[in-house]
Amino acid sequence: MAVKGRHFRGLSRKSSNSTLLFAVFIGFSFFVLILLAFGIFSIPFTSRGSRKVHDLSSIAHNAAGRRDDDGGRGDEWAELISWEPRAVVYHNFLSKEECEYLINLGKPHMKKSTVVDSATGKSTDSRVRTSSGTFLARGQDKVVRTIEKRIADFTFIPVEHGEGLQILHYEVGQKYEPHYDYFSDEFNTQNGGQRIATVLMYLSDVEEGGETVFPAAQGNFSAVPWWNELSECGKGGLSVKPKMGDALLFWSMKPDATLDPSSLHGGCAVIKGNKWSSTKWMRVHEYNI
Ligand SMILES: *[C@@H]1O[C@H](CO)[C@@H](O)[C@H](O)[C@H]1NC(C)=O
């Protein structure tokens, strides 16, 4: 019985050694797979030099350092400013040349801005919006197409869902009272459905005033670093100061596809200087032009 037992123990130790080796091998394989899966190390099969300018990796916050291939746009970085509404500022989204180009395209055609009458769907004059503006045709020339493609890349909304760019000019005292970009009527949603998001591009700096303000934004909006530079109107909510080349993206709809009332926004009156901006409204569906 004792001999048999010792023999058995001997066999058992031998087989437990190979089981242990096998377990170590399997464990190591899993370890390598997990490292690969989490990207802790990677098999180098792409070259870093092949990255495109508008690759998402190029817009990380603090990714300072000018690139030579940015078309003269300076440091591009994304600044998430709010979750309610969902809003982000893409700094240096447009180059100075692109801003001037858009202003010059619009300048000869500026008309007093109107607002859409929700009862009739027709444009009407209004005291809530005192700027002047004009619409460009979607894809009207190469520069416009380049900008529209960039907007599509940064918003993940196809170019075909966009309305034509609007160019806007606000002189001292001109403003746009807080409003929603989404529609509350049937008429305006027939083509393209509801407006889902807006990209507002600042084509000029404004010395004082002219902020884009979100009066219904949630959170402590007086905590923004630029609080002391804001006008009284700008202090009425979460505000973005116009800066040439910057683009503000905000969503009028939540991820569950319901309308987001925290997207209420206005253009504060310009106090000193001139404000030029360009707006791209994007629809839920393809927008036919
Ligand atoms: C909001 O932020 C400001 C500036 O950081 C701070 O002084 C104030 O106490 C904050 N208010 C609340 C209600 O947290």
UniProtKB/TrEMBL annotation:
Membrane topology category: Single-pass type II membrane protein
Keywords: Dioxygenase, Endoplasmic reticulum, Glycoprotein, Iron, Membrane, Metal-binding, Oxidoreductase, Signal-anchor, Transmembrane, Transmembrane helix
Entry-linked InterPro entries: Oxoglu/Fe-dep_dioxygenase_dom, P4HA-like, Pro_4_hyd_alph, Pro_4_hyd_alph_FE2OG_OXY
Chief subcellular location: endoplasmic reticulum
Gene that produces this protein: LOC102579923
Enzyme class: oxidoreductase
Family named by the database record: Belongs to the P4HA family.
Compartments it resides in: Endoplasmic reticulum membrane
Annotated catalysed reactions: L-prolyl-[collagen] + 2-oxoglutarate + O2 = trans-4-hydroxy-L-prolyl-[collagen] + succinate + CO2
Any Pfam family matching the protein: 2OG-FeII_Oxy_3
Source organism: Solanum tuberosum
Protein known as: procollagen-proline 4-dioxygenase
